[in-house]
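Chapter review: from sequence to fold.
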Amino acid sequence: MRKGTIFFGVALAWGFILAFVLGLVMPTAAQGKEPVVLKAWALTYPEPVEIWRVLSDDLRELGIQVKLRNGSIGEWVGDIIRKENPYHLVTMTWSGSPERIEPSWFLTEFFHSSRIERGRNYGNYVSKKFDALMKTQLREMDPEKRKQLLWKAQEIINRDNAFFPIYHHDMIQAYNCDRIEGVIPTMGSCIGWPYNPWTFFRARPKGKIREPRVVNRKDLMSTNPFAAQEAQTMGWMRLIYDTFAKRDKDSKLIPWAAESWNIVDDTTVDIVLRDGMRFHDGKLVTVEDAKFTFDYIMKWKFPMFSADWRNIEHVEIRDGRTLRFKLKSPYAPFVANILLNTFIIPKHIWKDIPSSVGVANPMDWPNPTPIGSGPYQLVEWKKKEYFHLKANKNHFIKPNFDGLYYLVVPTTEGMIAMLEKQQAEIYGFALDAVQANKLDALPYLKTVRVPNHSITEIRPNFKMRPTSDPSFRRAFQYAINRKGLLDIVYQGQGVVAHNTPIIPINKPWSNPNVPSIKFDLGKATQILKEAGYTWDSKGRLCYP
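The token string follows.
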């Protein structure tokens, strides 16, 4: 053998050894590739805890480990919204409040890039094509053309697997039929949520109890309507402060504090203020209060009212009851996103806020005695225990109840027990079918069930491996047993979600061509293999 050949062979052998040491030759799974460990966040409520109990078992079969963190809604705001999301997956159930019937709400809040920083797009999803479609659909005044744009936006979300929808559960609640009559269930709110509260407007007391007691596990987050960043708190604020429009019992948009509205042209809208309204302190509600409200929102750019300051150029008074809006550009959901969501505040109280109360931003003011013009007035709030509303009998709705007591009860068992013992009249949280059947068996209790446009979903983080990987997200979709979870958590009361946040019954906005995704661990395994993922000797999934 020649010396050069021997030298080449020795050099080649040492080269392989050096390459392996330096990591230039890819080790096999058995040699220590990094296993996939997902950090997930979920609320401490029974529903998300049960979801992750089931889902973790299925993910374990794929070799995926999960580290779950549970927390309160306040901790969710602190951990996820107010700073950069450090989790691979975040689970949330979004309630069916009225503004969320408008199709652009879920699509924009979940997926538009402008909602990443301190917004609801904490999955950090970015698609220039999606953003452009959402901008165009807002300006499209033709409903059919707008529908097609929204359908295309949903197809992009489906293609990118931008989130993992699970189900839209029905809303089931209960009430004491010996003490209350004439309840009015509404989609998403049923009878005890304050989002679209026609029961609180029109139901009647039977017997001596004229101020029904509502039990719920959530307390108010604030009595400052500009600081209310959670749907239920916003709902109660809308009972205290009148909004310009409302959804009726069939979820159709109707006039409220605005007696009427007129689309003058694509960028001009006039509204006529309802005559004779008064604030809770007795002062008349004027068109100056209405203009001040919008000017105030545009000045301070409150996050929950971004539709106002993003779209309104200015507001002017036309006469003693008419307000004219000049828009920056055509805005199709003006009524659904602005008039429905914006309430009237009294100028005589808010004009010197925040300077007169020593805070930098109006959101920082506690607003301890909220004064609105709504059908109910807050008269007492003892945090984490209860609050008390008195009916405003001078309101144009004139509630039949004299008031409402809202009792904060931290557990489902405690809330159910209070209805059984007749210590409360309305169950204001969500029941499952088993709990409902138990209450229905009592002659003085009756349950009510309605469809719900709320959605339970898991959001992947596009800034972290492996949820940034399109193949991993696609595989994860097949690892979710949606039908099984709906059956376990709500005994099948609801519908399995398609790969869009818009419930199928919300026609014509929900794209019928976007499919639901069937549970298939074999398919998930195949996708992961094809993407280069491997499994180590302990069965753990490892990165490519």
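Two observations follow directly from the output. The CA atoms of residues 276 and 284 lie 7 Å apart. The longest strand covers residues 258-265.
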